[in-house]
Design goal:
The complex is a heterodimer of chains A (299) and B (544).
Chain A lengths: L5 E10 L2 E11 L4 E5 L6 H8 L7 E6 L2 E2 L4 H4 L3 E4 L11 H12 L4 H10 L13 H14 L4 E5 L7 H16 L3 E6 L2 H7 L2 E6 L2 E7 H7 L2 E6 L13 E7 L2 E6 L4 H9 L4 E5 L3 H10 L7
Parallel strand pairs in A: 3-8, 3-9, 6-7, 7-8
Antiparallel strand pairs in A: 1-2, 1-4, 4-5, 9-10, 11-13, 11-14, 12-13
Helix pairs in contact in A: 3-5, 4-5
Chain B lengths: L15 H35 L3 H11 L3 H7 L8 H35 L3 H4 L2 H30 L12 H28 L3 H22 L13 H8 L10 H21 L23 H36 L4 H10 L6 H32 L2 H6 L5 H33 L6 H10 L1 H17 L1 H24 L4 H5 L16 H24 L6
Helix pairs in contact in B: 1-4, 1-6, 3-8, 4-6, 4-7, 4-8, 6-7, 6-10, 7-8, 7-9, 7-10, 8-11, 11-13, 11-15, 13-15, 13-17, 13-18, 15-16, 15-17, 15-20, 17-18, 17-20
The chains are: A alpha/beta (299), B mainly alpha (544).
The structure holds adenosine-5'-diphosphate (ADP) and magnesium ion (MG).
Magnesium ion (MG) binds next to helix 1 of chain A.
Chain lengths: 299, 544
């Protein structure tokens, strides 16, 4: 299969005057985990529902492995499994029966994997859905998606409502899926999750794609966080190229630096720095930097 | 799904559930109350125009005043020569049934609907909280019931005139009281069934079954069989006995109050002893895996829907049987030329058993139409709850899913037509009335064209305007019924009559089915279905 797992071309969805998604161009190569990141209301769910052919694009198109998601949903969905956080399942069926049903609807199921997943996620499949807690209902959907070994997993904030232990199990299986060559699109507003799992990150805001890069590229793009300690008062570093977000606290100076760090290092050395640490910013900081900056195109 | 969630960890505000429930029930209560008031006021105001002379009024009173069959179907008809008596006969039963349904739905929605979504999990944790939450929701529904009754009374004041040409203040107040009683009775029932059953759908269905039994009991009580005391066994009977417009009897409010208190208390007790998400009657939360009927959309439709369809089949068989049993006796009381004239206006051209069955066919047609609309409502519910997403996101074609649903509706309707015919035949034969089986099977089939029309309209709406499809379709059934009831008693403009599907249905077996009209109704239904399917294939799936 040469076609990318997901391709969106100018994908747009309007609800009346609300533009939920605005000309999204996105390519997810097969075999990768894409973190689809954005605050609430950014258009993540809208994007995924468009990919699934549940809603109709106002303009543009979405393809799953080269098949149009709206025109040929059945063929497009042959290799896809879907999980959301808004878990509404048939209340009178048991968890196991829901798995049966979704398995049949998908076609092929790895029976051994199903049993393994039920054990790993610690799910009691004999209970009726109405008796499960929200977290347990979430587990049913995760198991249903994973047991199909679908080529593409579309996950819309799948870990909301899961406790940390189950979250770890989830991550293990997602990595395993990637290692087997499956593609994962994981929408989230939790940065730590995306940071821990994803190869690529796409950031949406107000219906627009702000950025799509690998995690590594994204980190390079952005500043390094520096903390330096001096014997006396720290020097005034305003005016040193690339330095911003300066903060002084006693003899400790904190700042971020973008581009070459050479001018900063020279300035620090001249001032007689005694101790210095540098680290890559967390995704959280990257994310905030994005939303704080004025150069983000206004919707 | 816009209901505010409760932030985790935050202490729920003191009366949060009450406030949220009030917000929902007051709006819908005001809307329904206004509609009920409008029905009543327009009926009262039309009396002078339709029956301007004393002679006409006396003729009306003679025709219907002691006509057992219409009384059994629509309620007592005293003082038809007064505006109050006329209005009472025309709208009382409609009002109490609609108010009952409103109360039932408000209660199951507030108590079961919210719990079903899982959003109130936090509020329902622990027995004490569960009782408090339930009590708050019930109080909220209570406010809605009062708003319903008050709005109805308020709108009805438009019809207040002198005793000769309009209603009086006391009568309007009494009418509000009757609406209050009906809605309270079934809200209390809904509160209890919400504890007994585990889903909103089941809780509402159980309540509707009780409503149907209540109707049947008062039907028998009023059928002139010497069983009038049975009226006290029926909640609808209590409201009927309150007779606010003709012979006010506040005593009848006593059983209503007792019922409401007992059922309300039982509901609170039920909330305390059961588990969240479970029902007292549905405690088998654990069950062996049944793999049958999970292989695809068709199988699933049958697995999820067959019990509902079965309940309808049993209901229609019992209902048709009951009418068949009383038909001969009731038919024998019909006589006199004025009555014959009135009956021919209602659609019956022959007397006796067949005339009675012909009149009763209207009620059965309404029930069958409700079943048809109910099938579309079930499809919509499956979509609104997000269940359909899972199927469509895998390899199930949405069009095939809808076709399976419509297929289930067709089976349900076909079965109902057949069972109605057979049940009526069996029941009438047991009473020694000789109406041929062919005639009765034909009468059963004759119920289907209006239902098919409504199924088509509901499906078309479902494809084009999903959020409105269910309320508008049910509204259309109510409208059609109202038009023929009003049209049967007094003059009404012909084009208005034409808007009612039931008007186009012959009162079989009294009349021969109208082939042309039936063909047109079926054609409209099929066009509607086709429109709905095409539109559904092209639209977004939408949650609540
Ligand atoms: N069915 C709908 N009707 C109207 N507006 C909608 C609908 N669905 C989503 N929206 C709007 O589209 C925007 C994006 O929503 P969504 O995709 O759900 O965001 P996210 O999943 O990122 O939180 C929001 O402003 C939301 O209000
Ligand atoms: Mg979302």
């Amino acid at each position: 299969m040469d076609a990318p797992a997901v391709r969106a071309d100018g994908l747009t969805k309007r609800y009346g005057r609300t533009v939920a998604l605005d000309h999204l161009d996105l390519v997810v190569p097969a075999g990768q985990i894409l973190g689809y990141l954005g605050p609430n209301g950014a258009g993540k769910t809208t994007t995924l529902r468009l990919l699934l052919g549940l809603i109709r694009p106002t303009s543009g198109r979405a393809e799953i492995f080269g098949v149009d998601a709206w025109r040929e949903p059945v063929r497009a969905h042959a290799h896809l499994a879907y999980v959301t956080s808004d878990v509404a399942l048939w209340p009178t069926l048991t968890g196991g029966e829901v798995l049966d049903l979704l398995g049949h609807a998908h076609g092929a199921v790895d029976g051994a994997l199903r049993e393994e997943l039920i054990a790993s996620f610690d799910l009691d499949p004999t209970l009726r859905v109405r008796a499960y807690s929200t977290g347990n209902r979430q587990k049913i959907l995760l198991i249903a998606a994973l047991m199909t070994r679908a080529d593409l997993l579309v996950l819309d904030e799948p870990t909301r409502g899961l406790d940390p232990l189950v979250d770890q199990v989830f991550r293990t299986y997602i990595r395993q899926a990637r290692d087997r060559g499956q593609t994962v699109v994981l929408s989230s507003h939790e940065l730590s999750e995306v940071e821990a799992l994803c190869d690529q990150v796409a950031i949406v805001r107000a219906g627009r794609l702000v950025e799509q890069r690998t995690l590594a590229e994204l980190r390079q793009l952005s500043a390094l966080a520096i903390e330096a300690t001096f014997p006396g008062r720290p020097p005034d570093l305003r005016g040193v190229p690339g330095v911003h977000a300066l903060e002084v606290e006693g003899s400790v100076l904190r700042c971020q630096v973008e581009g070459s760090i050479e001018p900063l290092l020279r300035a620090l050395a001249e001032a007689g720095v005694t101790r210095m640490t540098s680290r890559e910013p967390s995704l959280e900081e990257l994310f905030l930097a994005h939303y704080d900056r004025a150069d983000v195109p206004a919707p | 799904m816009k209901t505010p969630t409760v932030p985790a960890g935050a202490r729920p505000a003191r009366a949060l559930v009450f406030t949220l429930t009030v917000r929902r029930t007051v709006r819908s209560g005001a809307l329904w109350g206004a509609a009920l008031g409008l029905i009543t006021a327009t009926s009262a105001l039309s009396y002078d125009r339709v029956y301007p002379t004393h002679a006409l009024r006396l003729a009306l009173a003679r025709a219907f005043g002691s006509n057992t069959m219409t009384i059994a179907l629509f309620g007592p008809a005293p003082h038809l020569d007064t505006v109050a008596g006329f209005t009472s006969f025309k709208v009382s039963l409609t009002l109490s049934v609609l108010a009952s349904l409103w109360g039932l739905r408000a209660a199951t929605g507030a108590l079961r609907g919210e719990e079903e979504t899982g959003r109130w999990d936090l509020l329902l944790a622990g027995p004490r909280r569960r009782v408090a939450t339930t009590a708050q929701a019930l109080a909220g529904v209570g406010v809605g019931v009062v708003v319903l009754a008050a709005t109805c009374a308020l709108v009805t004041t438009a019809a207040i005139r002198s005793p000769a040409s309009g209603l009086r203040w006391t009568q309007v107040l009494g009418l509000g009281g009757a609406v209050l009683a009906a809605a309270t009775t079934f809200a209390a029932l809904g509160a209890l069934t919400s504890q007994l059953d585990a889903t909103r759908h089941d809780a509402t269905t159980t309540g509707v079954v009780v409503l149907a039994i209540a109707y049947a009991l008062r039907l028998v009580a009023d059928a002139g069989l010497g069983l009038h005391a049975l009226v006290w066994a029926s909640p609808l009977g209590w409201v009927e006995e309150m007779a606010p417009l003709t012979a006010p009897s506040p005593v009848a409010a006593v059983p209503v109050a007792i019922w409401a208190i007992v059922l309300g208390a039982a509901a609170l007790r039920g909330a305390r002893v059961r588990d969240v998400g479970a029902g007292l009657l549905a405690r088998d939360d654990r069950r062996r895996r049944r793999r049958r009927l999970l292989t695809g959309p068709g199988a699933l439709t049958w697995r999820l829907g067959s019990s509902t369809i079965l309940r309808w089949w049993i209901g229609i068989t019992l209902g048709a049987g009951l009418i068949g049993l009383v038909a001969r006796k009731a038919g024998s009381t019909i006589g006199g030329s004025s009555v014959r004239d009135v009956f021919s206006r209602l659609g019956a051209t022959t007397l006796g058993t067949r005339a009675v069955l012909g009149v009763a066919s209207l009620i059965l047609a309404v029930v069958v139409s409700l079943l048809a609309v109910g099938q579309v409502a079930a499809a919509r519910a499956e979509e609104a709850r997000g269940h359909l997403d899972w199927l469509v996101a895998s390899r199930v074609s949405r069009v095939r899913w809808l076709l399976w649903r419509l297929g289930a509706a067709a089976i349900a309707l076909g079965g109902v037509g057949l069972l109605e015919g057979l049940a009526t035949w069996g029941a009438t034969a047991s009473q020694g009335a000789h109406v041929g089986p062919t005639l009765l099977l034909e009468a059963g089939a004759n119920l289907l064209p209006p239902a098919l029309t409504l199924l088509g309209v509901a499906t078309a709406l479902y494809g084009l305007w999903p959020r409105a499809a269910v309320p508008v379709s049910y509204g259309l059934v109510a409208w059609s019924l109202l038009i023929v009831i009003v049209g049967g008693i007094g003059a009404i403009s012909p084009w208005l009559l034409d808007t009612s599907v039931f008007h186009h249905m012959a009162g079989a077996p009294a009349e021969a089915p109208r082939a042309a009209a039936n063909a047109i109704m079926c054609a409209i239904g099929l066009v509607g279905i086709a429109t709905g399917v095409v539109a559904f294939a092209r639209r977004d799936l939408v949650a609540t």
